[in-house]
């Protein structure tokens, strides 16, 4: 990809991150990046019924655009550059570059994308969006009821010192944690339905060794983690990117975006008394993350089971 286009996409990726990092206060539960990308992609014509979009929807929007641009139905779509920010030298291959640049923008400028005919939502994208609606309905029905102050006192009474075990009792489900952490309802792991329609991601998460909640995500401290090793008190985040197939440009910018997210997730886990691990599919991906964040060395694992 030409250097100038890469610079343009890098800037647009930063703008996209800024544009989506502060949801409206009126929204109680912020939309996931995956859902937002699926809804935005549903307005465009795709020649592969949306398979690439569904596969890459967890990526930042500009990254997803670059990965899936080749399956846009370009016989039905034209690009114009009214702002001039994507203008490049006029060659035959540049149309692709301008198209990626325009689509990767945080907000598409009116008149920049012209589509002929009505757009019917691609079948695979529609299935993924329908799955979100189903999961949201189940999630609302299973929404936890927060206990009142009086009801929270009961577990505290039961935590009074007990006689030493004779050694015949079974091991506790989890090692003990501080009283302050146990008093926080948001630190209690709760199984919730998997987010997203990524079957590979869900399978790799479910197969984490000694996973206490296979078939579910685990809600802790307001964050959906991919797996929980209950006995060891370890929360997991799983990354199933085909990192080795990424372009040089993506291999440079994706680790930085992922590391920022992993640092936040690790802090949430540690504040509730859990350790944190990250599973990836290749040694190259592991090395790239550790170069970006040396403090994560030792907690990133290549998933032999995935």
TrEMBL record:
<dbReference type="InterPro" id="IPR046277">
    <property type="entry name" value="DUF6310"/>
</dbReference>
<keyword id="KW-0732">Signal</keyword>
<feature type="signal peptide">
    <location>
        <begin position="1"/>
        <end position="21"/>
    </location>
</feature>
<dbReference type="Pfam" id="PF19829">
    <property type="entry name" value="DUF6310"/>
</dbReference>
<keyword id="KW-0812">Transmembrane</keyword>
<feature type="region of interest" description="Disordered">
    <location>
        <begin position="143"/>
        <end position="201"/>
    </location>
</feature>
<keyword id="KW-0472">Membrane</keyword>
<keyword id="KW-1133">Transmembrane helix</keyword>
<feature type="domain" description="DUF6310">
    <location>
        <begin position="180"/>
        <end position="306"/>
    </location>
</feature>
<feature type="transmembrane region" description="Helical">
    <location>
        <begin position="92"/>
        <end position="125"/>
    </location>
</feature>
<protein>
    <recommendedName>
        <fullName>DUF6310 domain-containing protein</fullName>
    </recommendedName>
</protein>
């Amino acid at each position: 990809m030409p250097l100038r286009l890469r610079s343009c996409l890098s800037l647009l990726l930063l703008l996209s991150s800024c544009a989506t990092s502060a949801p409206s206060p009126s929204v109680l539960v912020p939309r996931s990046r995956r859902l937002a990308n699926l809804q935005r992609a549903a307005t465009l014509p795709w020649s592969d019924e949306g398979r690439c979009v569904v596969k890459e929807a967890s990526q930042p929007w500009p990254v997803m655009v670059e990965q899936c641009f080749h399956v846009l139905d370009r016989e039905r779509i034209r690009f114009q550059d009214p702002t001039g920010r994507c203008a490049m030298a006029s060659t035959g291959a540049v149309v692709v570059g301008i198209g990626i640049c325009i689509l990767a923008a945080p907000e598409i400028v009116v008149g920049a994308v012209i589509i002929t005919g009505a757009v019917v939502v691609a079948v695979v994208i529609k299935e993924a969006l329908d799955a979100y609606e189903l999961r949201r309905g189940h999630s609302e029905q299973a929404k936890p009821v927060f206990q009142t102050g009086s009801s929270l006192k009961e577990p505290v009474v039961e935590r009074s010192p007990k006689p030493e075990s004779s050694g015949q009792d079974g091991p506790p489900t989890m090692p003990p944690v501080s009283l302050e952490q146990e008093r926080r309802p948001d630190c209690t792991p709760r199984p919730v339905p998997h987010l997203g329609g990524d079957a590979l991601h869900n399978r790799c998460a479910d197969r984490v060794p000694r996973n206490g909640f296979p078939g579910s995500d685990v809600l802790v401290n307001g964050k959906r983690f991919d797996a929980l090793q209950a006995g060891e008190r370890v929360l997991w985040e799983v990354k199933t990117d085909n990192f080795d197939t990424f372009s040089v440009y993506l291999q440079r910018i994706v680790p930085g975006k992922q590391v920022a997210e992993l640092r936040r997730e690790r802090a949430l886990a540690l504040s509730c008394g859990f350790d944190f691990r990250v599973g990836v599919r290749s040694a190259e991906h592991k090395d790239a993350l550790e170069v970006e964040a040396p403090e994560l060395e030792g907690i990133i694992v290549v998933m032999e089971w995935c």
